[in-house]
Fold this protein.
Amino acid sequence: MISQYFIGGMMPDSANPVQQPQTIIEIRPYRGGWQCYEGPGVQPYWNREHAKEDAIGYATARAKFGRGQIRVLRPDRSVERAIDFNQRQTHR
């Protein structure tokens, strides 16, 4: 018997009892440059002319798999923009 939850051999996300946790990667100002904060121990830092763009590029490359969002923060820690891992960008 085939489960009603399987569609084309795949289980839709809504029927999947164990979903991946959402990952948040923050791009934030740090010591005159920009830091890409993924978690403790994963915090590369850029401080050259295109540091912010380099940090976003690094985060985009790291975010190829899974669910989550890249959040670019302002100096006051508010969200300047958010980029879903599937590359849809939202502005705040």
